[in-house]
Amino acid sequence: PSASVAEMEDACKLANAHDFISSFPDKYDTNVGSQGAQISGGQKQRIALARAILKRPKILLLDEATSALDSESEQIVQAALDNVMSSRHQTTIVIAHRLSTVRHASRIAVIDSGRVREIGTHEELMEKPNGKYWRLVQLQDLHGKEHVLDSVTDSPKKKKKKGKTLIDDLEEGETDKDDKFDDDDDASTSSADERIAKKHAKRARSLAKNEWGLFLLGSIGALLAGLMFPAWGIIFAFMLEALYYPIFPCPYDFALATFLPPGFDSLVCD
């Protein structure tokens, strides 16, 4: 409450929030609704970041700051985070599973099972083939993802929307979502998704290659479990048919024995 207008604007500029706030009808005095209902998740994140910057903390802790955002909003918020991390006003600690969030950090620590396994810059950690960070980058396909997102960021339709307020975007509704990206962007995104899926499948096969025996055993068990219910159906049909015979045509021992295979199947597979 004691901050001046100039200080608020400086904090919002650092958080990449000043431009869209200035485009609102009442600028910094605009009513954004209950719990910010009339602004997007990305704009909420940038406003929250600006508030944190305004307090000038010695340590700024960001926990999954971009996890709930779409790709476009993530890029804008990420640019704001890069601005904050590059400033020397405070120490910024970022906790993230998205590697693009921490790529430009001065130090990246890879924590596994509660212990620091690797530490260094992005470039230093990428020089360690098959290191933990290197493998995470390959799994998330960071380079391909950034290429796609860069093309999305530079698309003509997005440039056209930069001058709009998010309130206007919300009024347009979901019907405009299909026209958000160009055909080339859609093709690039689809291609990137296919590469990521293939890379994940290859990774899964490499992890499971030494466990093929267990997979074979599990497949046989799944097959037997699937046969259990049809077997019970056949037996019950046989029982109903037998009720109409005045004299049971089969030995009783044989009739009882028909229950043993599905019973054993149920015992083993369930």
From TrEMBL:
It is found in: Membrane. Signal peptide: none annotated. GO terms for molecular function: ABC-type oligopeptide transporter activity; ATP binding; ATP hydrolysis activity. The keyword RNA-binding does not apply. It is a multi-pass membrane protein. The keyword Transmembrane helix applies. InterPro entries: ABC1_TM_sf, ABC_transporter-like_ATP-bd, P-loop_NTPase, Type_1_exporter. The chain crosses the membrane at residues 212-239. Keywords: Membrane, Transmembrane, Transmembrane helix. This is ABC transporter domain-containing protein.
